[in-house]
Design a protein that fits this description.
- It is built from 6 helices and no strands.
- By secondary structure, the chain is an all-alpha fold.
- The protein has one domain.
- Helix 2 packs across helix 5 and helix 5 crosses helix 6.
- The protein starts with a helix and ends in a 7-residue tail after the last helix.
- This is Stage V sporulation protein AE.
- InterPro entries: Spore_V_AE, SpoVA.
- Keywords: Membrane, Transmembrane, Transmembrane helix.
Amino acid sequence: MQYLNAFWVGGMLCVIAQILINKTKLTPARILTTYVVSGVILGGFGVYKPLAEYAGAGATVPLTGFGYLIAKGTKTAIEQLGLMGAFTGGLTATAGGIAAAIFFALLIALIFKPKDKT
């Protein structure tokens, strides 16, 4: 049942994004940013945690999950470090994902030869 929950919640997040792309004049970059910011807001208010526990990877892998992780890391760092945690918590919590993205982007750039679109 856990796989089914992850599938339908992640699928609904994708469906919402696709509807926004098709029905509005929002650019994909704005939609992605909106997803991250909404994950931060929902995570900050504690609304996203039950969804993440229910859907697992279906809620934590999309961009809203990245925003939730930023909010969660910031909350934890503020409890431990005070005001300084507001500046360091989000980066500390997401450092692994950011480092992996940079590493794999570099690896792909070394393997393939990018070309201009002309």
